[in-house]
Task: structure prediction
Amino acid sequence: MSEDEGPALRITKIGEDYHAAFAAMATPCEIRVQTADGALAERLGQLAQQEALRVEHKFSRYRSDSVVGRINASGKGGLLVDAETGDLLDFAQECHKTSDGLFDITSGVLRRAWHFDGSDRLPDPNRITSLMPLVGWRKVSWKRPHLRLLPGMEIDFGGLAKEYAVDLTLHRLMAVTTQPLLVNFGGDLRVSGPRSGGTPWHVAIESVQMPGTASGILQLSSGALATSGDARRFLLHDGIRYGHILDPRTGWSVKNPPSSVTVAAETCVEAGLTATLAMLQGADTEEFLKREIIRAWVIR
Amino acid sequence: MQLKERQAGDVRKRIARLSAGLLAASLAGHSKSAAAQYDSENNNFGPGIAYSQLDAALLVYQEAGGRVSATEPTLDLSVHGADGRQLSLGFVADAVSGATPNGAVPSNIPQNFLTPLRAKGSTATVTGASGGSTIIQLPPTPGQIAQAALGRQYTVPANTLPVDKGFRDHRGAFNFGWAQPLGGISEVGFGGSYSRESDYQAVTSNAHISQNLNSDNTTLSLSINGEFDSSFPFGGIPVPLSVMNAQWKSPTSRNKTQLGFVAGWTEVMSRWWLMQLNYAFDRQSGYQNDPYRVISVVDPGSGEPISSLYENRPLHRQGQSLFWDNKVDLNPAVTEFSFRYYTDSWNITSKTAEISEHVPLGNSFYVEPSGRWYQQSAASFFRYFLVGSQALPQYASSDMRLGAFTGLTYGAKIGYHINGRSEFYLKGEYYEQMGNRHPASAIGQLRQQDLFSGTNAAVIFAGYSWDFH
Result:
């Protein structure tokens, strides 16, 4: 293998498990498999990397040749999209409806106004007002398979793609092996089931105050975990904490959200979306989680 | 911000259901994408996306020794609908000129060849930059009309392969195809083409059906094709094995029909390996001769050409071939290798082996070196020449393409992705034909001559392909 054959895949044996680690979707990714077979681990690692890179390549908003890049550059006539993209758009549309507009894949343009650098500099309200005409799923014409955005609008699967990749990857790996597996892309993860002998996987929740250290250990025997929140990305103004999650209906940052919300669910897509919605409740996050009977861990 | 009042757990349940639905849809589509990723290197829109592709290219072909040269612009457009419908259109124009071997053997003395004028009754000169021929007055023949008493004569120097330098033609061709899924059938389609030169016309049509099985990992296909060709050479259709002359002949045209089928099996062996096996059968009936081509009759002692006879080939030809192709994706390089075996009722058998390697260089460039080896045996009626004292065979041709030879092609393609949707490519190929230059049957002066009239040629291809919605 030469160095040109793609990004590195690191295989390490840790205890009873093999870990295969690589970088994709701008985040560290790893899979863990409970096996003594290093070749199997490498094969699984390659498959996981392939799938992560595929999803990244197809849905990254930073690549002009991705589907999202082409959608955002598609102009007045709009364009026809493939079945997989269509499924994601259908999903995003339903989530928009279910969340009364809180989850909106068109909200990304608001990032032009907001810079979460830990300072107290709130954006110019006029700037936000001028961007709002470009935000809102209802302004999008989506009649499968044809999609048309208003000029200047953009879509972004950023809040979805990583979790989606975790779920697809796990399915692909489970088609290859029956060994216990854990797929973790940047903290969003899912397991194939308990470890052999029925013991759970141990997953650490990263400490907000001291990144890199654990503030708690979760035990996971099935399903997925996803975390929303980034302790390092906020603004603090007049004693109010503005987290990096924006409300697409106002263009403003949600006030006083938790530092992070970790949600457990059957699939990683479900966990990720639920965590994002919980975060969007701001001060009411806990109330929302309680009302919806969601298994979650909130760090304030 | 708060969600509207709902039943406890409503949002969670709904999101759970949506998430499960999304993943189920994706996973169902997943096995398809494994097959589709091999679709085409240019198809970077992924499976099922509607797009169009425009490919414009210029081909320049030059045979060694200043023989035939050709310039061929091509334009291809294909429109892919998201629902699997495809329309393709193609246009080709080419200009061919130069010298083409007329079939006669070289001689130790200069040889004259007499052939009809390019147009019946033409009095215009056909000598030109590449002509090298003169119009001569033919000796009067009883019953012949006045204008036809002119002919074109060209002289070939001693010890030189006889070529006719008056060869110049234009060709225009057009093709179209349509394919779509139909009911439970993965794809049905039909197509056709029309090609026209000043002395030849071809019309083809085809229909195909293919079915994907085994989660789209297997594709079985069947296509049938028919062709109807008309040949209307300058000077009319010569009587087979008659002496070459400048008379206008009748009839002025003859036809050929061809009917064939191809049965194909494509299998996704693994995510890295795609295999294809095709069996083809075809049968041609009608006029198969090259109307300009002659074969020398030589003196049994000295080997000097006595006369040139128009060639003759059987009216029927039936051929079969087996083709095995493999694409192996050794990420990021893609290797393609194939073998082909062909045999026909003219006793020609041929074997082809081909390999190419597609190697990406960074994000924008790729190179694709390729090599092809080809070997064929001679048709049963292939002769370098005929011998004066022997009885004339029923069929005879000295066309090197019907003789035994080995061909080697070396090529390389360089492509540059201008962006995700357009690509510029440059391809160069060199073709070398090798055969027996001194067959054991050579007589007298022929032993000193190079009797192999195969050629070496270079092809340069420059193209631009653009994918758009």
In short: Chain B has one domain: 49-462. The radius of gyration of chain B is 28 Å. The first strand of chain B starts at residue 51 and ends at 63.
